[in-house]
Amino acid sequence: MATLTDRIDHLLGRKVAEPLAEAFGIETVQDLLRHYPHRYATQGAELGEKEPPEGTHLTILATVTSAAIISMKSRSGKMLKVVLTSDKQSVDATFFNPQKVAHSIKPGVRAMFSGNVKYFRGKLGLTHPSYLILPNRDEDDGSVVAAGKVRGGGALAGMARSAQDPGAGVDMSIFERNLIPLYPATREVESWTLLRCIRQVLDQLDEVQDPLPEEIRREHGLIGLDEALRSVHLPETKDEVDLARERLRFDEAVALQLVLAQRSHEVAGRVAPACPPKPDGVAAAFETRLPFTLTEGSTRSPRRSRQTSAGHTR
């Protein structure tokens, strides 16, 4: 079993842990579980309310609505121009090796695509993204239809190969979930890599002891920390996501207030010579030379600073 303070390399091995540490500074179980999803893909896949900035690494679930091999204008050769539908949005994708991918990337195919965002004439696009062909869903009951060989390309080709090996630790059933977490990722550490690591850690994690007293949780309508950490990564419903985020935001706010209170206490305990203000000092001379009259609000903060310098705490 595992606790929040356990090291990732002890649980998942150095080969997995080193890229996580280099990309995100993740070294412990707590670091990993605090790397929250930034959005959730549905079985129609959403990109989020705002379009991502150019250069952002994006992972989406989408259905291919059109695919055509066309000639390139700027140089000789051909490319596969694809239109992807994700929820109510469409994304263009371009592949420069059409003879290798056209048999996999075709209309009606449902897949995960992962690459860097690039805009062309204001339209969101992915240039030669990695892809993983996903099992189709039955239109009648929404269940996943068993598929044959799992195919993939680019950075996701390894996941496709691993999916053929039952002992490789890649569980394709994640794509049967109603909500699939998508994480801030890099070229070296894909979203699915983070998800796989988090699932492995959650399977080994002991129940997390909650530092927040039960009466405070009840007063604010908050769920427990253990439930929040598990629900934010593997939710069943959007309500679970909302409850988990509310609890985790509360924790962050409390932590910030505690840090500020601690710093205030440390400052109050420091002893320094008193520096009382002088009516004819530099500050007074500065104020008299201003071409306007200070308001009450603009004098409040300097007044408090002068009181502190004079040896007063309030």
Short synopsis of the structure:
The chain is an alpha+beta fold and 314 residues long. It has four domains: 1-36 and 183-206, no CATH class; 47-176, OB fold (Dihydrolipoamide Acetyltransferase, E2P) (Beta Barrel), CATH 2.40.50.140; 207-268, no CATH class; 271-314, no CATH class.
Total number of domains:
4
Radius of gyration: 27 Å
Shape: extended
CATH class of the largest domain reads Mainly Beta
Count of discrete alpha- or pi-helical segments spanning 4 or more residues: 11
Which superfamily, in CATH terms, is the homologous superfamily of the largest domain? Answer: Nucleic acid-binding proteins
Proportion of residues in β-strands: 15-25%
Q: Name the average pLDDT.
A: 82
Instruction: Spell the H/E element sequence.
Output: HHHEEEEHEEEEHEHHHHHH
Largest sheet: 5 strands, mixed, barrel
| Separation of the first and last Cα atoms | 50 Å
Q: Label the CATH architecture of the largest domain.
A: Beta Barrel
- Structural class by sheet pairing and helices: alpha+beta
CATH topology of the largest domain: OB fold (Dihydrolipoamide Acetyltransferase, E2P)
Low-confidence stretches: 139-148
